[in-house]
Structure formats: C-alpha cells, structure tokens
Amino acid sequence: MKDRFETFTVLITKISRNIKKIKNHEMAEYNLRSSHISCLYYLYSSEGLTATDLSERCEEDKATISRSLEYLEKNGYITCESKFAKRYKSPLVLTEKGMEIGRKITDKIDLAFDEISTGLTEEERAALYRSLSIISDGLEAIVKGFDEKE
C-alpha cells in the first residue's frame, strides 16, 4: 500500500481529535475539559492514584496533569489527604462530587464504545487492539532509539 503513512496518520489524528471533541462536548455542562475527564476516569476506575500514575495512564506531561489536578481540587472533585512532602507522589481521592462525575463519565464511555463497536466482531476488536499495540510498541522503540543517540 503506497499511501500507508498518509492513511495511518490521518486516521489516527482524526480519531484522537474526535475523542477530544466528544470528551469536551459531553462534559461542557460541568466545565470539564478533556484532560480533566481522563483524570476523573482513571481515579474512578482505580482510586488512590498519584499525579505520577495519572501522568503515565493519561499519556500526558506532568504540567498538564498538574494543571488538571489543581482545577479538579479547586472545584471539589478530588482531594489529597496525604501528608507526603512531595505532592506529586501523594494519593488522590475522589470526593462525593468526583465519584458522581466519575460514574457519569464511565457510563458515557461505555455507551460510546458500544455504539462505535457495533460493526466489529469480538475477534475483529481483539485484532484491532493487538495491531494498535504492536504499532504503538514499534513507534515507542523508534523514539527510545532517538533518546539513546542523544
């Protein structure tokens, strides 16, 4: 296939852009942005994560996560009850308000994935995720090669 690069990059970019638009649209009434939603989702799924954990799971840089957590804490979605000296390593906990939104986010994600998956069999879905994982690992290996050369 001659246009593999164009097809791949355009589709991945479109998927990423549409996911971000859906996140922003669905949570606009709560004044939440895409990065806030990811943090709330992961905290709802695995309470007690640190900012470092969230940065890794959300695939976001520390600055973005830090700004998101500051917003979420200021607006009553999360709290940090730990007394660790380094705040970035302190476990974060959803408040009651955060739990409610986390549940809504999870429900909306489940509905969206049910809707977009209707044309795929379970085997096709498994193959898609396996393929994406192989591609992701391959790209990550290339990037690691850049870091080793520096």
What does this structure look like?
With 150 residues, the chain is mainly α. Helix content is 71%, strand content 3%. It contains 6 helices and 2 strands. The protein has helices at 4-27, 34-45, 51-58, 62-74, 96-116, 122-149, and strands at residues 78-79, 93-94. Strands 1-2 form a two-stranded antiparallel sheet. The radius of gyration is 18 Å and the shape is globular. The protein starts with a helix and ends with a helix.
Set down the secondary structure blueprint.
Elements: H1 4-27, H2 34-45, H3 51-58, H4 62-74, E1 78-79, E2 93-94, H5 96-116, H6 122-149
Antiparallel strand pairs: 1-2
Class computed from helices, strands and strand pairing? mainly alpha
The total strand number stands at 2
Kindly report the spatial arrangement of strands forming the biggest sheet. 1-2
Residue runs with pLDDT of under 50 for 5 or more positions: none
| Overall average residue pLDDT | 90
The fraction of residues assigned to DSSP E strands is: under 5%
C-alpha-based Rg, rounded: 18 Å
Order of helices and strands: HHHHEEHH
User: Helical element count?
Assistant: 6
The level of helicity is over 70%
What general form does the structure show? globular
Distance between the termini: 33 Å
Question: How is this structure best summarized?
Answer:
This protein is mainly α and 150 residues long. It is 71% helix and 3% strand.
